[in-house]
Design goal:
It is found in: Mitochondrion matrix. The chain is of the alpha+beta class and 356 residues long. Helix content is 32%, strand content 15%. The protein has two domains: 2-56 and 146-288, no CATH class; 82-137 and 299-354, FAD/NAD(P)-binding domain (3-Layer(bba) Sandwich). The termini are far apart.
Length: 356
């Protein structure tokens, strides 16, 4: 249990709760959930420019990272088809993957196919079901994809002014504006309470909020004097109690709760808001293809990691279809913007390619 680990090392409850957020981030779990300690480890195991456990902002926004990867691939001769949805994986008579068919009818032939989509999309939607073992399909269907995350993107016309660290007279950003700011994290009991509400189908009345202001470090993201604020919030269930839909009313009601919480820490925040974009778990699934809205393509619980990711016997990036590989967050070692799953999958695919 994460709570036991934190209690061994720290005395300050706000510090323990703040550290605990990385143990439950993106997970339908509380600090008291068995195995939650691993999720914290997962988020600090890497490094950034030689600094272990460090995270960073991508200059130009997260889309700039995709563009950098695309440019590197194109420089090596790759052809990129943007806005071209895949209809299904093409299979030969020997049941090997032979490429993909696009929804416009185009067929792209290849000896190997690597899928960065979720295991559910890859094997339940894009691969002919009759070519997959029934027990494998059942395992993929049973993967836990519950997600508590609602992402809110906000445009503001001034820098948030927090009571705990008031802004400078000249209005210039201070060090805390350049970091992740954790709200409603005065104690781990608050995180557990927020989790308990979501398990019952209700959005948290005092949600966990991770607030970042990337435009402080990357001014090009917003006009001068204005800023973009990224809110990573939880817990919100994918399915609301009593069958209530995640309609505009429900979305805005939850967002108002989040903004009321921020207002308590930074008076004037609500008045500074120019616009907001609310992405609930169903929105994240519909727009980005994340099953259940899960940013990791599946829960990062101990029963869905290592040799069991995405399912036992197929944790090495290969699939029941020869020539078809899984290289996204649903493969080992799981989610996070680190590229480990893709790199590992590429090495396995290249090794197989040598023997074709």
């Amino acid at each position: 249990l994460l709570g036991q680990i934190l209690d061994q090392w720290f005395e300050s409850e706000p510090l323990k709760a703040t550290l605990a957020t990385d143990a439950v981030i993106g997970a339908m779990a509380s600090p008291h959930t068995p195995g939650s300690g691993y999720v914290l480890l997962h988020h600090v195991m890497g490094e950034l420019e030689g600094r272990r456990g460090a995270w960073g902002y991508v200059a130009g926004g997260m889309g700039a990272l995709s563009q950098a990867i695309a440019s590197a691939a194109a420089a090596q001769g790759a052809h990129i088809f943007a806005e071209k949805a895949v209809c299904h994986v093409l299979l030969g008579r020997d049941r090997r993957a032979q490429g993909v068919a696009l929804q416009d009818g185009t067929e792209v032939r290849s000896k190997l196919v690597l899928s960065n989509a979720s295991p559910q999309t890859t094997f339940l939607e894009l691969t002919p079901q009759e070519q997959l073992p029934k027990d494998f399909v059942q395992r993929i269907q049973q993967v836990d994809t519950r997600s508590p995350v609602t992402k809110i993107n906000v445009a503001v016309d001034r820098l948030p002014n927090f009571l705990a660290a008031p802004n400078a007279q000249d209005g210039q950003p201070l060090p805390h504006h350049q970091c992740s700011i954790h709200l409603n994290c005065e104690g781990t009991h608050l995180l557990h309470q927020a989790f308990s509400e979501a398990i019952q189908g209700h959005p948290s009345s005092r949600p966990m909020i991770e607030l970042c202001i990337p435009s402080v470090l990357d001014p090009g993201l917003a006009p001068q004097g204005c800023h973009v604020v990224s809110l990573f919030t939880q817990y919100t269930p994918a399915e609301l109690a009593s069958g209530q839909p995640w309609d505009e009313c429900a979305k805005n009601t939850y967002a108002d709760t989040v903004f009321d919480c921020i207002e308590a820490y930074a008076p004037g925040f609500k008045a500074s808001v120019i616009g907001r974009d609310i992405l609930t778990p169903p929105d994240l699934e519909r727009i980005f293809g994340l099953p259940g809205g899960n940013i990791f393509h599946g829960a990062m619980s101990l029963d869905q990691l290592y040799f069991a990711r995405p399912v036992p016997s197929y944790s090495g990036y290969r699939s029941p279809v020869p020539g078809l590989y899984l290289c996204g967050s649903g493969a080992h070692p799981g989610g996070g913007v680190m590229g480990a799953a893709g790199r590992n999958a590429a090495r396995v695919a290249l090794e197989d390619f040598k023997h074709l």
